[in-house]
């Protein structure tokens, strides 16, 4: 279980995260959504340790991890797929999967991981992680690095960003499989209805605050209802 | 050969084993072992120190090892090795120099390698430089490579200097006839107060000649590196020079590009990028459980792979 208590984060006097309080339970699939600039990515980065909050605390399975380094959080079972995958000169797809899994792995094992994200392993395993790979391919490899670790808490920052419709269709399938397995907690930051539809719980952020938390059916109705049909305008 | 010799040889020429058909091992300025076959001959030069290597035309899958080891402190070894590669011959040449210096005197090896490629000849040239030893004596390596390429010939050169060489000045010169292809990949890692200067001077003289130079270097500690490329396109030709460098600590790297198009159809590109390790790369690897120094090591090792 992950608890975020009174998390605040400011940049240039602008409050990016404003007193965030959230509890994420084990084996649930969460989607965090909200307008651009609402603090979604920052919140995920705070959980992974990529961004240090100005105040507040993060408790993971009863342990205060607020001041823990990124790699120590990774070792505790937190995984993070970046919105914009990083490229590496000289590192192959196999190399990054080997690092992700933390020990030697056979090519067969690496292939099995890649096939989970829909990549034909033979074509990709020895490719360098550089810009000769398309945005969709890099994104799938990024997701594969998280899947390879089987983290108990997986964070995916806008997996749909920067990829084409066909790759997105495949990504939806990957997350559908994750959501049905109900193993470990999954947090996906997304604007996409098809991904939000997979969630057990949707968290809506606005202006750095948690505006609403609820189950998928209630939240989706509310989020995608035209403004004129929402409560404020009913009267 | 003693254990030091064997371990130096292993560092610079991993693939040299008892099954090797053609080799010349040079130790402290003298040839100590040599083997040749019907297709590839090695002859000692008469007036100057060095060897001539003759590869017969149409030789296929030829493999030649010419490692040099220096274990005598204070020695300056200058050697001239000339390679004559016959028409349509296809050969791999492993060269390299390992210096072991436990004393306070400086040791130096200056290898001047000249390649004469006949029409259609194909060469892969792998060169590795390595220094070790506890002494205060400097380990200096100054390789010069001259490449003369006739029509339709091709040469791929992989050059690596990863560890332990205090000073190096590397000069690679090439002149290419029509349809000749030259590919050079160079990797250099300097640490502490080491210096490395490397220069490529390439003349593209024949139509459709092409050269591709990829240089990847890392300067750590307070080491200094200099990369100079000077490519002249005299006709319809293609050149792509990439200099990619990572600086760490107080390392300094200077890149000096010079490309000169003397013909309207010459297409010459030079790219140079120098910078520290990207923060995003470090952070990504840390999310996979590596600490910062482990992540740095992985990035540098991959970069120089």
Provide the β-strand percentage band of chain B.
Answer: over 45%
- Mean pLDDT of chain B equals 92
Which residue ranges of chain B are poorly predicted, with pLDDT under 50 across at least 5 consecutive positions?
none
Instruction: Kindly report the average pLDDT value of chain A.
Output: 89
Write the layout of secondary structure elements.
The complex is a heterodimer of chains A (235) and B (305).
Chain A lengths: L1 E10 L2 E11 L4 E5 L6 H9 L6 E6 L2 E2 L5 H6 L2 E4 L11 H9 L5 H10 L4 H4 L10 H15 L3 E5 L7 H17 L3 E5 L3 H4 L4 E6 L2 E7 H9 L6 H4 L1
Parallel strand pairs in A: 3-8, 3-9, 6-7, 7-8
Antiparallel strand pairs in A: 1-2, 1-4, 4-5, 9-10
Chain B lengths: L2 H10 L10 E5 L2 E6 L4 E5 L5 E6 L6 E9 L5 E10 L4 E11 L6 E11 L4 E11 L6 E3 L2 E6 L4 E10 L3 E10 L4 E10 L4 E10 L4 E11 L4 E10 L3 E11 L4 E10 L4 E10 L3 H9 L4 H12 L2
Parallel strand pairs in B: 1-5, 4-6, 5-7, 6-8, 7-9, 8-10, 8-11, 9-12, 10-13, 11-13, 12-14, 13-15, 14-16, 15-17, 16-18, 17-19, 18-20
Antiparallel strand pairs in B: 1-2, 3-4
């Amino acid at each position: 279980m992950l608890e975020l208590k009174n998390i605040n984060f400011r940049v240039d006097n602008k409050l990016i995260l404003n007193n965030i309080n959230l509890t994420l339970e084990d084996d649930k699939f969460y989607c965090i959504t909200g307008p651009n600039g609402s603090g979604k990515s920052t919140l995920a980065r705070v959980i992974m340790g990529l961004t240090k909050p100005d105040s507040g605390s993060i408790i993971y399975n009863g342990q205060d991890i607020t001041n823990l380094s990124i790699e120590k959080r990774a070792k505790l079972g937190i995984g993070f797929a970046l919105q914009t995958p990083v490229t590496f000169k000289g590192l192959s797809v196999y190399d990054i999967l080997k690092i992700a899994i933390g020990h030697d792995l056979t090519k067969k094992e690496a292939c099995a991981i890649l096939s989970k994200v829909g990549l034909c392993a033979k074509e990709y395993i020895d490719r360098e992680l550089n810009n000769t790979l398309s945005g969709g391919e890099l994104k799938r490899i990024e997701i594969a690095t998280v899947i390879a670790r089987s983290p108990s808490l997986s964070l995916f920052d806008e997996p749909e960003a920067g990829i084409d419709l066909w790759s997105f269709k495949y990504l939806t399938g990957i997350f559908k499989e994750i959501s049905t397995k109900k193993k470990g907690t999954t947090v996906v930051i997304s604007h996409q209805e098809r991904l939000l539809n997979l969630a057990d719980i949707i968290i809506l952020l606005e202006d750095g605050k948690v505006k609403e938390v609820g189950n998928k059916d209630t939240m989706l109705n509310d989020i995608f209802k035209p403004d004129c049909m929402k409560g404020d305008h009913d009267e | 050969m003693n254990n030091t010799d064997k371990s130096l040889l292993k560092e610079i020429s991993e693939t040299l084993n008892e099954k090797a058909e053609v080799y010349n091992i040079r130790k402290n300025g003298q040839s100590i072992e040599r083997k040749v076959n019907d297709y590839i001959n090695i002859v000692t030069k008469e007036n100057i120190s060095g060897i001539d290597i003759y590869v017969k035309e149409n030789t296929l899958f030829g493999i030649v090892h010419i490692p040099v080891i220096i274990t005598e402190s204070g020695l300056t070894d200058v050697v001239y090795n000339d390679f004559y590669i016959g028409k349509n011959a296809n050969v791999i040449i492993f060269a390299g120099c390992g210096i072991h210096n436990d004393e306070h005197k400086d040791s130096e090896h200056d290898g001047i390698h000249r390649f004469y490629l006949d029409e259609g000849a194909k060469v892969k040239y792998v060169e590795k430089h390595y220094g070790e030893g506890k002494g205060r004596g400097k380990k200096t390596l100054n390789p010069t490579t001259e490449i003369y390429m006739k029509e339709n010939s091709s040469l791929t050169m992989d050059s690596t200097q990863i560890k332990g060489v205090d000073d190096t000045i590397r000069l690679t010169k090439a002149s290419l006839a029509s349809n000749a292809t030259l590919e050079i990949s160079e990797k250099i890692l300097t640490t502490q107060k080491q210096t490395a200067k490397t220069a490529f001077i390439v003349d593209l003289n024949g139509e459709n000649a092409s050269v591709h130079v990829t240089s990847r270097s890392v300067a750590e500690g307070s080491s200094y590196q200099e990369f100079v490329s000077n490519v002249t396109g005299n006709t319809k030709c293609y050149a792509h020079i990439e200099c990619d460098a990572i600086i760490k600590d107080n390392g300094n790297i200077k890149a000096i590009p010079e490309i000169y198009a003397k013909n309207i159809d010459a297409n010459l590109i030079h790219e140079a990028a120098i910078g520290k390790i990207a923060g995003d790369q470090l952070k990504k690897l840390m999310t996979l459980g590596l600490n910062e120094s482990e992540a740095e090591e992985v990035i540098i090792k991959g970069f120089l792979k």
